[in-house]
């Protein structure tokens, strides 16, 4: 296969499902459903995360997400946002599976409200139970190579370490640990949380991640649809740079023009 | 002619107290509050009610029901 062919065939696979886009986007915090749908389109995302919440029984006929983003065209990845225990997360995903009819889910069990850092003890416990029940959990976790390995051994179908706290937009804080997780994992690794702008997404991809998951970086941009396009380009650029094998770094300059023949 | 009095029972739906007719199925309850069963999942007393059983499972007095769907989230 030539390099060109390789790039064209550059899909990734999670739990047996192949995707072309390496960008997963959230559907929270948008001004309205129209903007959200336009951002999904501009991002090229094939997977979106969604939350599971009570139907407003006083007014059940309000417009809903599925009217704007077709779950037959875009894979819905139900999350457990807001769950602080394994039991809450498992309960939420059982409902999600019944509502949607699929096993591919995003698990996140939060440890505290201020940082939204994951509680890894509960996360691991939930992963084990979900796998027993036939779920295929993509798991939000700390950027800890040992914890990542434990999740993989428990049956996580993807490891999704944070780059920085959820919604912070601080960018990838620890490139070393993300790289170590990527090197050690046999399942896809996606940076989930912390991306603030396009270069952050490119960094994640240059480190060898299979993809990036983000919400706030797009939804809270002044022009979300434009930022969605920027993120798409950044993820593609980062991926291509990773496949290209970047040059080595030098401490000092090295001229690009030949020294021979200098007048 | 014997007058029949419609018996009602008390349940909690999504955290709110509600009285409904006795003998109502979950599907019947969803229809009463105008919810499309295809778009939601129902939990009854912490157990999932599979969509295929919504017609069969009856709402009982004191039941706690959760009716959920997908909303925007990260």
Question: Topology, please?
Answer:
The complex is a heterodimer of chains A (263) and B (74).
Chain A: H1 3-8, E1 12-14, E2 17-19, E3 23-26, H2 33-43, E4 47-54, H3 65-68, E5 75-78, H4 86-100, E6 104-107, H5 120-132, E7 136-141, H6 145-154, E8 158-161, H7 175-184, E9 190-192, H8 198-206, E10 211-214, H9 216-219, H10 224-244
Parallel strand pairs in A: 3-4, 3-10, 4-5, 6-7, 7-8, 9-10
Antiparallel strand pairs in A: 1-2
Chain B: E1 8-13, E2 16-21, H1 26-32, E3 41-44, E4 47-49, E5 64-72
Parallel strand pairs in B: 1-5
Antiparallel strand pairs in B: 1-2, 3-4, 3-5
Describe the protein.
The complex is a heterodimer of chains A (263) and B (74). By secondary structure, chain A is of the alpha/beta class. Chain A is 39% helix and 16% strand. Chain A has helices at residues 3-8, 33-43, 65-68, 86-100, 120-132, 145-154, 175-184, 198-206, 216-219, 224-244, and strands spanning 12-14, 17-19, 23-26, 47-54, 75-78, 104-107, 136-141, 158-161, 190-192, 211-214. In chain A, the strands form three sheets. A five-stranded parallel β-sheet of chain A has the order 5-4-3-10-9. Chain A has a three-stranded parallel β-sheet with strand order 6-7-8. In chain A, helix 8 (198-206) runs parallel beside helix 10. Chain B has a single domain, classed as Roll (Ubiquitin-like (UB roll)), CATH 3.10.20.30. Chain B has one helix and five strands. Chain B has a five-stranded mixed β-sheet, with no helix packed on it. Chain B is globular and about 50 Å long. The model of chain B has no long low-confidence stretch (mean pLDDT 91). Chains A and B meet through strand 4 and helix 4 of A and strand 3 and strand 5 of B.
Proportion in β-strands of chain B: 35-45%
Please give the share of residues in helix of chain A: 25-40%
- Put simply, the count of helices of chain A is 10
CATH class of chain B: Alpha Beta
The dominant shape of chain B is globular
Protein chains sharing the most extensive interface: A-B, 37 and 26 residues
SS element count, helices of chain B: 1
Task: Using the coordinates shown, work out and report the CATH topology of chain B.
Answer: Ubiquitin-like (UB roll)
Uncertain stretches of chain A: none
């Amino acid at each position: 296969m030539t390099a060109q062919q390789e790039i064209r065939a550059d899909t990734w696979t999670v739990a047996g499902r192949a995707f072309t886009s390496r960008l997963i986007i959230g559907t929270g915090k948008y001004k309205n459903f129209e903007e959200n749908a336009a951002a999904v389109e501009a991002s090229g995302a094939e997977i979106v995360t969604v939350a599971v919440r009570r139907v407003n029984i006083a007014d059940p006929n309000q417009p809903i997400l599925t009217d704007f983003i077709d779950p037959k065209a875009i894979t819905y990845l139900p999350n457990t946002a807001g769950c602080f225990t394994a039991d809450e997360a498992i309960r939420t995903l059982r409902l999600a599976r019944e509502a949607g009819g699929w096993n591919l889910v995003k698990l996140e069990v939060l440890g505290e409200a201020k940082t939204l850092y994951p509680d890894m003890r509960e996360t691991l416990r939930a992963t084990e139970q979900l796998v027993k029940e036939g779920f295929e959990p993509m798991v939000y976790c700390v950027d800890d190579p040992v914890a990542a390995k434990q999740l993989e051994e428990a049956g996580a179908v993807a490891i999704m370490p944070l780059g920085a706290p959820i919604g912070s937009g601080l960018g990838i804080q620890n490139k070393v640990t993300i790289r170590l997780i990527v090197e050690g994992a046999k399942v896809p690794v996606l940076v989930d949380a912390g991306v603030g702008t396009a270069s952050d997404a490119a960094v994640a991809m240059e480190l060898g991640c299979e993809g990036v998951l983000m919400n706030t970086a797009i939804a809270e941009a002044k022009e979300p649809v434009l930022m969605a396009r920027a993120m798409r380009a950044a993820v593609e650029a980062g991926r291509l740079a990773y496949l290209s094998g970047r040059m080595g770094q030098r401490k000092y300059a090295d001229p690009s023009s030949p020294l021979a023949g200098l007048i | 002619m014997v007058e029949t009095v419609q018996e009602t029972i008390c349940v909690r739906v999504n955290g709110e107290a509600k009285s409904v007719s006795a003998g109502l199925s979950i599907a019947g309850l969803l229809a009463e509050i105008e919810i499309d069963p295809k778009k939601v999942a129902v939990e009854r007393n912490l157990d999932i009610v599979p969509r295929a059983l919504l017609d069969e499972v009856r709402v009982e007095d004191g039941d706690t029901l959760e009716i959920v769907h997908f909303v925007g989230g990260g």
